[in-house]
């Protein structure tokens, strides 16, 4: 079957396909990153996580709409405002929700799961009522839609590159933030030993609130970048939620390295499977493979070996 | 099940006493029976009664969730999978009966269900063969969920996966089942589900009179399941389950193999859901993947939580109440209903973790007792998750 291709062409196909896989990995990681922070640092399962992704996507869509209507000459630059805006909006919503709801539910993980599911229903209905039930997508600047051609047969989409760069920046930034800054130190100490942190004068309540809001903000950025790939609708979150949880569980809860590896594993698997069979059957096999892997490695692929 | 095992529960240990331990339990069962057998059939129209029968099918799943989530601490977000297992088993039997040679003679291959013919299948797949027999179908409705639940939980429970992670896994399982059915249009009817189910061994299930009979069959099965669950909870088994929910390590060090207990209760919950699913198909006349997906499975949890996650009778009231409210509100104010429904999750979790049953057992019962001068002291069970 490879006879009709030259070596050069095969290499180009390989590079472009692996880049496609890499973009998928980035999407998985972007989906799982916020969950990782909330679960890894706070042991809270946030079922409304996907709705924060959607908030980010909507911020992006509305920003592009606004820019086109009011100042079309800035269409090429609005990204640099819209993405911080997506972070800020999701951060603020997260802050409020932690304050009203989540702060009452620590140490009741299963109950948090239910309450946040209720929250996600409410948020979905808010999107539907206030923004509209129709699917929406952001108008992207010209330069993002193009592709980069290092040789004349290799064609790499720019938005894939941007997503890749964002994922790397966010992941590295998160590692840097948790390990090297004062706030990161507070986050880690609160998650390790709450009482002792309180005794040392750390305001654990504010730390929790900040951590949760930060996770939401990261999801907001992730969602903003998802608009470059898929369109957004009020119920878009439900399609992300199962996958993003599986990435997290497979990676071993609370391990950032595991998250990236399992994102890569899932991306690889699903692109291979979807090559051979139809979308939903591929999904079935993907889940079955994950179940088998998790039956063997029940703590996930890369768990921290600390007893809870 | 000798007397020393459950000293705190009942002083006398006859089988019937266990089922209906104490006066209040007997009263609550009689009240439920009164409502379901007498009041609802007399007051509701045929259409509404059929709807109630439909809601009662969900309450089978809720009873399972009370056992599995409330008493054993294993939250399953994927009971829809087992509901679907029973529902599809029954639907496959009914579909085969509906597609006899006579009524399918215009197809390319007569004698197979219509959706198979549309998908160019020329032969009945092997896994459809058992569904020619009604007895085998009934057996499969019980056996399949046991097998599947054991298979899907044994390795996880053995690896001590519990709590949130297990909940997420069960959710993925039900998502997987959804994709499986949708992806196999030729075998299971795909997203459209199985429709045009007509007769059960020649008995037309769409007639109003047979719908009424089906309602009473559902109620009878429901009471069977209630007594069975009550019996499990009052036995030593139930004590171990509650114990491992509250103090896992202590039970483990006492020499119990928790894997077996957990797999058992998870399978029981699956079987209950499967029975509910089978009855659902009979009453509604179709089965579709959207009845068993991720969202309907979480709906089952909220029915349970509203009724009270520790109270098996409460589960029945919970599913009836929430579904009735859903029907009434979403007919009139669909937007408002979603807000109310979402808020319901939050309110139940924050304010009423034991649901309606909790209002009764923690607040009202004491008052009623003091009014009636009954001085029996029952401490309300503490809820830990």
UniProtKB/TrEMBL annotation, chain A:
Which superkingdom?
Bacteria
Protein localization: Cell membrane
Q: Which GO cellular component terms, listed alphabetically, does the Swiss-Prot or TrEMBL entry include?
A: plasma membrane
- Main localization category: membrane
Tell me the GO molecular function terms.
Answer: transmembrane transporter activity
Tell me if Transport is a UniProt keyword of this record: yes
Keywords from the named record: Amino-acid transport, Cell membrane, Membrane, Transmembrane, Transmembrane helix, Transport
Q: Does the keyword Membrane apply?
A: yes
The GO biological-process annotations, alphabetized, read as:
amino acid transport
Spans through the membrane: 12-38, 77-101, 153-178, 210-233, 245-272, 284-302
> What membrane topology term does the record carry?
Multi-pass membrane protein
One family from Pfam that matches here is BPD_transp_2
Q: Which family does it belong to?
A: Belongs to the binding-protein-dependent transport system permease family. LivHM subfamily.
**PANTHER family on file:** ABC TRANSPORTER PERMEASE PROTEIN, BRANCHED-CHAIN AMINO ACID TRANSPORT SYSTEM PERMEASE PROTEIN LIVH
Q: What is this protein called?
A: Urea ABC transporter permease subunit UrtB
**Phylogenetic classification of the source organism:** Bacteria, Pseudomonadati, Verrucomicrobiota, Verrucomicrobiia, Verrucomicrobiales
From TrEMBL, chain B:
Pfam families xrefs: BPD_transp_2 (PF02653)
Q: Please state where this protein is localized.
A: Cell membrane
Signal peptide location: none
Q: Which UniProt keywords apply?
A: Cell membrane, Membrane, Transmembrane, Transmembrane helix
The domain of life is: Bacteria
Matching CDD domains, A to Z? TM_PBP1_LivM_like (cd06581)
Instruction: Name the Gene Ontology molecular function terms of this record.
Output: branched-chain amino acid transmembrane transporter activity
Gene Ontology annotations for the cellular component aspect, listed alphabetically: plasma membrane
TM region positions: 26-44, 56-85, 134-157, 164-181, 213-233, 254-280, 300-322, 334-352
What does the record say about its membrane topology? Multi-pass membrane protein
- Provide the protein name: Urea ABC transporter permease subunit UrtC
Q: Which organism is it from?
A: Rubritalea profundi
């Amino acid at each position: 079957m490879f006879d009709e291709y030259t070596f050069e062409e095969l290499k180009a196909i390989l590079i472009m396909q692996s880049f496609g896989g890499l973009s998928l990995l980035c999407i998985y990681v972007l989906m799982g990153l916020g969950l990782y922070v909330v679960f890894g640092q706070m042991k809270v399962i946030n079922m409304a996580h996907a709705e924060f992704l959607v908030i980010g996507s909507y911020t992006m869509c509305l920003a592009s709409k606004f820019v086109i209507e009011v100042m079309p000459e800035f269409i090429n630059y609005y990204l640099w405002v819209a993405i911080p805006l997506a972070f800020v909006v999701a951060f603020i919503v997260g802050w409020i929700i932690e304050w009203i709801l989540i702060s009452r539910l620590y140490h009741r993980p299963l109950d948090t799961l239910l309450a946040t599911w209720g929250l996600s229903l409410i948020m979905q209905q808010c999107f539907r009522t206030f923004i509209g039930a129709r699917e929406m997508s952001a108008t992207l600047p010209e330069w993002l839609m193009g592709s980069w051609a290092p040789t004349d047969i290799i064609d790499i989409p720019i938005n894939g590159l941007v997503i890749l760069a964002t994922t790397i920046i966010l992941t590295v930034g998160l590692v840097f933030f948790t390990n090297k800054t004062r706030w990161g130190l507070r986050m880690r100490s609160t998650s390790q030993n709450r009482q002792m942190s309180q005794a040392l004068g750390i305001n654990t309540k504010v730390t929790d609130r900040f951590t949760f809001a930060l996770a939401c903000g990261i999801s907001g950025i992730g969602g903003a970048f998802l608009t470059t790939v898929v369109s957004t609708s009020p119920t878009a979150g439900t399609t992300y939620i199962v996958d993003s949880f599986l990435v997290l569980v497979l990676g071993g809860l609370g391990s950032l390295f595991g998250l990236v590896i399992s994102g890569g594993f899932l991306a690889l698997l699903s692109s291979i499977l979807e090559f051979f069979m139809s979308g939903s059957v591929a999904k079935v096999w993907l889940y079955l493979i994950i179940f088998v892997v998790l039956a063997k490695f029940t703590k996930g692929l890369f768990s921290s070996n600390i007893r809870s | 099940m000798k007397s020393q095992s459950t000293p705190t529960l009942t002083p006398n240990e006859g089988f019937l006493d266990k089922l209906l331990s104490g006066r209040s339990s007997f009263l609550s069962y009689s009240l439920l029976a009164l409502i379901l057998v007498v009041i609802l059939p007399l007051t509701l129209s045929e259409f509404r009664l059929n709807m109630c029968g439909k809601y009662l099918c969900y309450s089978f799943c809720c009873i399972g969730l009370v056992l599995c989530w409330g008493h054993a601490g294993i939250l399953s977000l994927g009971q829809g999978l087992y509901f679907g297992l029973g529902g599809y088993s029954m639907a496959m039997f009914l579909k085969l009966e509906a597609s006899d040679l006579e009524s399918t003679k215009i197809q390319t291959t007569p004698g197979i269900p219509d959706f198979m013919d549309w998908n160019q299948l020329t032969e009945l797949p092997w896994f459809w063969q058992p569904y020619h027999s009604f007895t085998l179908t009934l057996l499969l409705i019980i056996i399949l969920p046991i097998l599947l639940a054991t298979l899907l939980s044994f390795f996880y429970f053995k690896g001590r996966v519990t709590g949130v992670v297990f909940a997420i896994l069960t959710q993925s399982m039900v998502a997987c089942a959804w994709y499986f059915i949708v992806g196999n249009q030729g075998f299971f009817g795909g997203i459209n589900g199985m429709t045009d189910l007509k007769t059960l061994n020649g008995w037309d299930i769409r007639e109003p009179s047979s719908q009424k009979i089906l309602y009473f069959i559902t109620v009878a099965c429901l009471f069977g399941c209630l007594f069975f669950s009550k019996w499990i909870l009052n036995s030593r088994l139930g004590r171990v389950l509650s114990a491992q929910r509250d103090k896992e390590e202590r039970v483990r060090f006492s020499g119990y193999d928790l894997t077996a207990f957990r797999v058992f209760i998870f399978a029981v919950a699956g079987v209950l859901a499967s029975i509910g699913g089978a009855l659902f198909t009979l009453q509604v006349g179709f089965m579709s993947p959207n009845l068993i997906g991720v969202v309907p499975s979480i709906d089952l949890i909220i029915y349970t939580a509203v009724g009270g996650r520790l109270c098996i009778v409460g589960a029945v009231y919970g599913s009836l109440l929430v579904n009735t409210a859903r029907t009434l509100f979403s007919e009139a104010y669909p937007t408002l209903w979603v807000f109310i429904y979402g808020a319901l999750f939050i309110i139940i979790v924050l304010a009423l973790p034991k649901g309606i049953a909790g209002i009764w057992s923690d607040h009202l019962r004491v008052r009623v007792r003091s009014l009636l001068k009954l001085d029996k002291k029952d401490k309300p069970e503490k809820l830990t998750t």
